[in-house]
Structure formats: structure tokens, C-alpha cells
């Protein structure tokens, strides 16, 4: 049962892809890892017959009364009947499909697609997880606040981080409603391997709703953390680093649609299959070469990693997923002696610049930062690697 004094937080990281963008969709390996930018899901019990949900980054709040939530659980079955593609179809064909259960200030026709997807994914996962746990009627209310440090549409895994948070948060709520955990035992709550597998699968399904054909790499990183070599349909392989991988993430502030870029590459592949398949093979080889470099003890291997950045970025340019703003970042990085590449789907979003271990001692690093700032790019230096989804109790 939800205790009014109870408040918890779930968080999940964003990610960067070092190598393997787009080619991972075609069965080639990708290399990616978490970054220290996270999405947060806060939940506390309230003495009201509703779920209050605040999407802080989208500046949108809504209320789902318990009567409407229970009606949604009765009328819609996302556990056994409604698979993610069909849920997406219904969401597109009939916009009031979910909004008849939701109370909010904005008219349905004034709600943007980002809000529509956020609410849709929340309701899909809430329905699916509650039903999978045998909960048909909810009798206690709660307030949920969701916020993220990750730019939306920037190629940093914001949607997967969101999906993992919603999945994990809804699961914790389900256990509190069932009484499997209570105000005391929840302090010992942790995500075991079996549960992490479920969370990753739920989040993958949320990615299907948002992107139609996700690779599966983003939800895997957000769930498990660690740098991984990932290949669709195979167990991810953890990569043990001999040294930190320092990068700078530079945001173009240009949002783009992952699904549209994936569709664009798919059309190219359909038109020129031999050429595109050769490019995808080369991208896969970049991943294998990078894994060898990262496992090496010698610091001089950094130069090889930098060269792989250039090679892979040129391959991504060849499939037409760069953008003038990204090209400007690449030029600035090259001017100061650093190697850069796009990360994620491209078409805007973010670039990553590889930094050597002694970058803080280099004059050209300070000049790089100054020039990026002068060109109005926001940037953040970080280390690739770290924890996946995390649970924490918050004292009142």
C-alpha cells in the first residue's frame, strides 16, 4: 500500500554512441556507453484519488483520476493484446484514444507530438506493468515528477532514459500497491538481473512507440550502464576499459527525428544495397578496432582511437546524416587539433570530441572551448561509463 510518507526516486542515464550509428540497425555491432546526464522519476503518495503527472521539461501537467485509470485498465490491455506498433497506430489514428482518460488544461489539438508521445508511453507502460503484476484496480493516488538533464532529440538517448525511468518507476509503484514491499522493506529494494531484463524490454517497447524501429542499444545502456559492444539479437558484451574515455559533448540545439533519419538511410540502402552494405561493414569494423584500442595498456593507442573517430565520421557523412551545424563543430575541433564525430542518428543533435587524458593541460583545449562558446554551441565535458538505472528512497 502507498504510504503518504513515502517518496522515492528512479534515475537512468543518457548515452553516447562511439561507433556504429545506423549500421547497428542492419545487424552490425555498435559501441556505446552511459554519460553523467540523467532522467529522474520522482514519486510520492498523495491523499487524492488520482495520479498527478508533471513533465517538467515539456512544461506539461496532467491528472488521471483513479476512476479513469481503472477504466483504462479495464478497456485497454497493453499486457496481452495491444502490442507497441498497434498502440502507436491507435495513437496516430485517433488522438483522443488516450486523452479521454486524462485531464489537462490544453485542448487535444494544441498538444505537441513530444507531449503526446510522453503521455502515450507513460500510459502504455503503466497499463502493461500493472496488468503484468495482476493489478486491475488502483485505489491509492500518487504524484509523479519527471525531469531530465538530457536534451531531447539530440542523439543522447533521452527517450530510452525516459522509458527506463517510467518502466522502473511503474514497477516500484506496482509492488507498493500489491504490498510486496512496504515503507520499511522498500529501503532494501534493488533491481536484480531478472528485473533489469524486464525493465530493458519494457523500455524497448516504449522506444518502438516513439521511434518505430529502434536498435535496442539505447534502452540497454540506460538500464545496465557500462560501455558495451552491442549487436541486435545478441547479448551485449561489457567492455572493460584500461583508461577513462574523456569526451566533450557539443549540442547543435537542432532537434531531429530519429525515425525519419533511419527511414532516409533505409531508402538509400534499398536503392544502393551493395554500396550501403559495404559502408555498414566498414562501420562494424570500426567498432571491432575501437574495442581493441580501448583494451590496450599503451596511452599512445589514443591516436588510433582519434583516427577511428575521423574514419567513422566520414562514413556517416557518406550516408548523408550530417548537418551544417555539425560540420561547423567538426571544423572548430580540427582547427585546434581534436577529432570529432556525430553521435546518434545525426541530422543535428550532438557531436562528440575526443579528449586526451592530459587535455586540461593543453592550451588548445581552452581555445576550443572559447571558440565553441563564441559560435553559441553549448558543450559539456564528461567521461563515458557509469551506472545504469538507479533506485533511491528520499527522506521527507
TrEMBL record:
UniProt keyword annotation of Cytoplasm present: yes
Alphabetically, the GO molecular function entries are: ATP binding; mevalonate kinase activity
Q: Which GO terms describe its biological process?
A: cholesterol biosynthetic process; isopentenyl diphosphate biosynthetic process, mevalonate pathway
Domain GHMP kinase C-terminal positions: 296-357
Which GO cellular component terms are attached? cytosol
Segments spanning the bilayer are: none
Q: Which of UniProt's keywords are assigned here?
A: ATP-binding, Cytoplasm, Kinase, Lipid biosynthesis, Lipid metabolism, Magnesium, Nucleotide-binding, Steroid biosynthesis, Steroid metabolism, Sterol biosynthesis, Sterol metabolism, Transferase
Q: Does the keyword Protein biosynthesis apply?
A: no
Per UniProt, subcellular location reads as:
Cytoplasm
Q: Spell out the Pfam families in the cross-references.
A: GHMP_kinases_C, GHMP_kinases_N
Pathway(s) annotated for this protein in UniProt = Isoprenoid biosynthesis; isopentenyl diphosphate biosynthesis via mevalonate pathway; isopentenyl diphosphate from (R)-mevalonate: step 1/3
Q: Which residues form the GHMP kinase N-terminal domain?
A: 131-224
Report the EC number(s), separated by commas if there are several.
Answer: 2.7.1.36
Catalytic activity from the UniProt record:
(R)-mevalonate + ATP = (R)-5-phosphomevalonate + ADP + H(+)
* Matches recorded under InterPro entries: GHMP_kinase_C_dom, GHMP_kinase_C_sf, GHMP_kinase_N_dom, Mev_gal_kin, Ribosomal_Su5_D2-typ_SF, Ribsml_uS5_D2-typ_fold_subgr
Record's NCBIfam families?
mevalon_kin
Which family would the database say this protein is a member of?
Answer: Belongs to the GHMP kinase family. Mevalonate kinase subfamily.
Its name, as the record gives it, is Mevalonate kinase
Amino acid at each position: 500500500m502507498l504510504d503518504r510518507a513515502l517518496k522515492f526516486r528512479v534515475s537512468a542515464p543518457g548515452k553516447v554512441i562511439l561507433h556504429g550509428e545506423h549500421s547497428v540497425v542492419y545487424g552490425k555491432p555498435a559501441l556505446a556507453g552511459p554519460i553523467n546526464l540523467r532522467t529522474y522519476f520522482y514519486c510520492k503518495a498523495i491523499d487524492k484519488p488520482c495520479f498527478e503527472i508533471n513533465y517538467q521539461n515539456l512544461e506539461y501537467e496532467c491528472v488521471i483520476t483513479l476512476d479513469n485509470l481503472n477504466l483504462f485498465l479495464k478497456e485497454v490491455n497493453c499486457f496481452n493484446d495491444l502490442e507497441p506498433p498497434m498502440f502507436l497506430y491507435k495513437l496516430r489514428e485517433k488522438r483522443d484514444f488516450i486523452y479521454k482518460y486524462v485531464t489537462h488544461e490544453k485542448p487535444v489539438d494544441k498538444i505537441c507530438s513530444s507531449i503526446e508521445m510522453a503521455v502515450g508511453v507513460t500510459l502504455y507502460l503503466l497499463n502493461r506493468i500493472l496488468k503484468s503484476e495482476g493489478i486491475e484496480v488502483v485505489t491509492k493516488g500518487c504524484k509523479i515528477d519527471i525531469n531530465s538533464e538530457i536534451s531531447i532529440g539530440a542523439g543522447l538517448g533521452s527517450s530510452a532514459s525516459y522509458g527506463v525511468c517510467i518502466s522502473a518507476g511503474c514497477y516500484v509503484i506496482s509492488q507498493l500497491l500489491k504490498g510486496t514491499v512496504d515503507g520499511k522493506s522498500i529501503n532494501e529494494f534493488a533491481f536484480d538481473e531478472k528485473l533489469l531484463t524486464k525493465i530493458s524490454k519494457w523500455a524497448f517497447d516504449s522506444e518502438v512507440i516513439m521511434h518505430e524501429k529502434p536498435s535496442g542499444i539505447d534502452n540497454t545502456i540506460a538500464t545496465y550502464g557500462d560501455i558495451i559492444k552491442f549487436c541486435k539479437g545478441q547479448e551485449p558484451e561489457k567492455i572493460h576499459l584500461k583508461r577513462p574515455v574523456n569526451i566533450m559533448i557539443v549540442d547543435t540545439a537542432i532537434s531531429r527525428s530519429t525515425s525519419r533519419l533511419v527511414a532516409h538511410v533505409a531508402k538509400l540502402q534499398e536503392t544502393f544495397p551493395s554500396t550501403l552494405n559495404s559502408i555498414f561493414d566498414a562501420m562494424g569494423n570500426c567498432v571491432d578496432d575501437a574495442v581493441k584500442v580501448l583494451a590496450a595498456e599503451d596511452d599512445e593507442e589514443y591516436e588510433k582511437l582519434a583516427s577511428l573517430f575521423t574514419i567513422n565520421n566520414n562514413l556517416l557523412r557518406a550516408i548523408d546524416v550530417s548537418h551544417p551545424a555539425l560540420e561547423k563543430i567538426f571544423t572548430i575541433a580540427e582547427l585546434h587539433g581534436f577529432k570529432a564525430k556525430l553521435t546518434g542518428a545525426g541530422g543535428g543533435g550532438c557531436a562528440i570530441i575526443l579528449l586526451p587524458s592530459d587535455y586540461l593541460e593543453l592550451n588548445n583545449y581552452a581555445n576550443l572551448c572559447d571558440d565553441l562558446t563564441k559560435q553559441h554551441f553549448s558543450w559539456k565535458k564528461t567521461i563515458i561509463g557509469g551506472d545504469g538505472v538507479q533506485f533511491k528512497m528520499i527522506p521527507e
